Amino acid sequence: MLLHGKNAVIYGGGGAVGGAVARAFARDGARVFLAGRTLGRLNAVVEDIVASGSAAEAAIVDALDKQSIEAHLDEVVRRAGSIDISFNAIDLGDAHGAPLVDMTQEHFMLPIGNAMKTQFLTATAAARHMSQKRSGVILAITAQAGRKPYPNSGGFGVACAAIEGLCRQFAAELGPHGIRVICLRSSGSPDAPGVRAAMQLHAQAEGISVEEMEQRIAENTLLKRMPRLADVANAAVLMASNHANAITGAVANVTCGEIVD
Question: Model-level pTM?
Fold first, then answer.
């Protein structure tokens, strides 16, 4: 078990990516604390994890609110003793399907503002706890749009690029305190409902089926497929584990080779 004895907080733990990562963390020995705004979705993941024999808890947390984040982390530390892993995978509220010239400034800025606010608040709150033990891992997730621009993706790609830049800055400042910061970059998992919906919008704009859109994206990868949620979750486990102790300030490429670094 790569994460045996670790305590992991997952923001957006009821979502497709957050839930997949939570299950993978638990499978590899971590005690997981799921944080989000919809208790029913969080509890569904908790039930899966507990049924498999692992430990998981859920709490209502607004990952865009400093007080909510810090109160939750204080409680986790009080009960579990430490925070070893923080992973933020909340929905940024981005809008796809329209060119920038047809978008309002508010729609364009929404995912960018949400990304910077939530990543800053959750990372700094976790880092203050982690620095006391001089160890910890802070993870974020972006998409290939942060590196490779796509038409009609609104502010999403810009938000992803901003998250990656923020992670590099955090890594530079937190490294001396024993804290690693890594960003996972996926090319979107077609088994995630949100990705499927975004692909549907782009497919409609181009007059093709969503299956044809998936195949078009897959053909642009070196592996000729898109990463599944399990692929992303397994990469998160590896990056959070001691096997990746020399890795920080990096973007882990989980795009199946759509992006080549």
Answer: 0.94
